[in-house]
């Protein structure tokens, strides 16, 4: 797609906001040079035309053209302008398609590092892996274990992939896609999203999609009559990386259709509908089936499907969500906030990405300029997030008048109070995680059973660790979980860890008794 439509940039990335004095450019280049051997994504690029393109290794890419600095005049508005310019700025024309920009001068004792990459070399979780390699303070999270897929799961997965399209909602002869991108940001406390979703059996991504549905409901009523009162077609990206593929370049993700229930009048109903719609995408067996389809689908057939999803009559909205639970820093300077940005596929109306880090979920809206009123989407998202059940945990991350710039400084995490939904860490909670996320049979999982008797193998332990991290931001390593002798001991370990006010879980965990 990049070669067929070179005018459509596929740049994705993040802005890391740090507290401290900015480093010299030479120092930052040296830091990245020291990690090149750890990150094949930094040294590989696709060489060749079309389907004949193959990965080529360039072990020493030119860092003078890839690690650069920019002085920004004082004031957050100037930083906002600089970020908009960088989102649209071309990547290096040859070799590995990534670069880094050091931004300083806009504030005292603060600076930013903007990481950009071409989507052909990095997907969302690949980008997170690169951040952990370069700026991580702890071991990177585990890769998703392979699930167990049967024939019926494969058939259902094929069917869902084939029906993903936009139903013509976004086709308007008076407003054909312009190819001009409009980028806006907002942010909300992660707890505001997580508490609402966990209480109803969902996760932060579900609440993000429900809030997006609420925002689009209002936006359509005001700006897009063709979509008013209807579910809007969207796809959500699913990570399919497996163990041993953390540093592998390229895209190891796929999409699944998720109709956004914009026709529903209440936030509760929208959230329940989203949770029901995304449940299958979280099933390890379904994810394994998706990966099998990705591996087995001929490249030419994949590109045919991609063309179908980018035709004006079928183009849906793209959504994606990533969470970074483990702290990032550079030279001891903490990363306080992560601000994502993404690309907009050809003919699609909008692409929305959310990233949770350090108690804040930052949301980036990339829209086609032909759509009217798109600058209102961040404020509408803030309002819709506030309407979520048990979601009013604090003030909005930004005042309504500021929706087009970086959220600096980030809002303080919302405190838990008597209105916060508590997650009870007990046997039923852990068993549900093992059954729902680990695809284990429920009968052998009893409190007195050993892990082996309960069917908890290494794959289930990895899944449980990831589920705890994703759903409540609790970091318990696979090694620690594997030490528990019985299921009761496992529950006790998780409950005790949830009660600790550690830096890794204090900012973003729900009020506990306890959960990923």
Automatic annotation (TrEMBL):
Region annotation (Disordered) ranges: 386-418
EC number: 2.3.1.20
Catalytic activity: an acyl-CoA + a 1,2-diacyl-sn-glycerol = a triacyl-sn-glycerol + CoA
InterPro entries: ACP-like_sf, O-acyltransferase_WSD1-like, O-acyltransferase_WSD1_C, O-acyltransferase_WSD1_N, PP-bd_ACP, Ppantetheine_attach_site
Sequence similarity: Belongs to the long-chain O-acyltransferase family.
UniProt-recorded name of the protein: diacylglycerol O-acyltransferase
Top EC class for this record: transferase
The Carrier domain, residue ranges: 424-498
Pathway annotation from the record: Glycerolipid metabolism; triacylglycerol biosynthesis; Lipid metabolism
Lineage, uppermost ranks: Bacteria, Bacillati, Actinomycetota, Actinomycetes, Kitasatosporales
Domain of life: Bacteria
Keywords: Acyltransferase, Glycerol metabolism, Lipid biosynthesis, Lipid metabolism, Phosphopantetheine, Phosphoprotein, Transferase
